[in-house]
Amino acid sequence: EAGVVQSPRYKIIEKKQPVAFWCNPISGHNTLYWYLQNLGQGPELLIRYENEEAVDDSQLPKDRFSAERLKGVDSTLKIQPAELGDSAVYLCASSLQLTEEQFFGPGTRLTVL
Amino acid sequence: QKEVEQDPGPLSVPEGAIVSLNCTYSNSAFQYFMWYRQYSRKGPELLMYTYSSGNKEDGRFTAQVDKSSKYISLFIRDSQPSDSATYLCAMSKGGSGTYKYIFGTGTRLKVLA
């Protein structure tokens, strides 16, 4: 069974540029999460989807971040414009409904210069 | 004060040692308690989870939860160099509309051959 797929794995951009991350969850998992992980820190939730619905986006900085999950499968997280402080690893995870076991992708490492 | 506290380490032990990793938390509403392992440049991987208080064993790993003290532990017996990674505790509370899943900062473990 394929795991959670994320692309790109690495991205380097200059500040004020836009950037987008893509996630393909495990087949059949209807709950999808985007996390931000800074160096030496644990993952912090940005947004949680149940199917197509964003049920928890309270920690998403909506002035520059946006996300979508079309047809309840793949998801895209976008930052526009990027700031220096956005440099981090962006992790996508999925789970069968709301369970304690989340399956993580390898993450996208973003560097903003 | 963070809801979940975890000593960041690093923790260095010789091969074969028993390792004890710990987290404390402040909110008694947490009901599920998880331990993830994260290798460098990889996403977290769930090791085990427990519900409420008690012990759970899986091979060389034992998870303990003491809700009265708001304290959870992960023990690794006969530690191996391949156990060298960052260990993240996590805990969850609430139903669909109020669900929260919080990670600790992670403890870096190095097992020396």
Write the layout of secondary structure elements.
The complex is a heterodimer of chains A (113) and B (113).
Chain A: E1 5-7, E2 10-13, E3 19-24, E4 31-37, E5 44-50, E6 53-56, E7 65-68, E8 75-79, E9 88-95, E10 103-104, E11 108-112
Parallel strand pairs in A: 2-11
Antiparallel strand pairs in A: 1-3, 3-8, 4-5, 4-9, 5-6, 7-8, 9-10, 9-11
Chain B: E1 4-6, E2 11-14, E3 19-25, E4 32-38, E5 45-51, E6 54-58, E7 61-66, E8 71-76, E9 85-93, E10 100-103, E11 107-112
What would your notes on this structure say?
The complex is a heterodimer of chains A (113) and B (113). By secondary structure, chain A is mainly beta. Chain A has strands at 5-7, 10-13, 19-24, 31-37, 44-50, 53-56, 65-68, 75-79, 88-95, 103-104, 108-112. In chain A, the strands form 2 sheets. In chain A, strands 2, 4, 5, 6, 9, 10 and 11 form a 7-stranded mixed sheet that branches. Chain A has a 4-stranded antiparallel sheet with strand order 1-3-8-7, with no helix packed on it. The mean pLDDT of chain A is 94. Chain B is an all-beta fold. In chain B, the strands form 2 sheets. In chain B, strands 2, 4, 5, 9, 10 and 11 form a 6-stranded mixed sheet that branches. Chain A binds chain B through residues 4, 40-45, 48, 50, 55-56, 91, 93, 98, 100-107, 109, and chain B through 4, 6, 8, 32, 34, 41-46, 49, 88, 90, 92, 95-97, 99, 101, 103-106.
Q: Which structural traits does this protein have?
A:
heterodimer, A: 113 residues, mainly beta, seven-stranded mixed β-sheet, 0% helix, 49% strand, globular, B: 113 residues, six-stranded mixed β-sheet, five-stranded antiparallel β-sheet
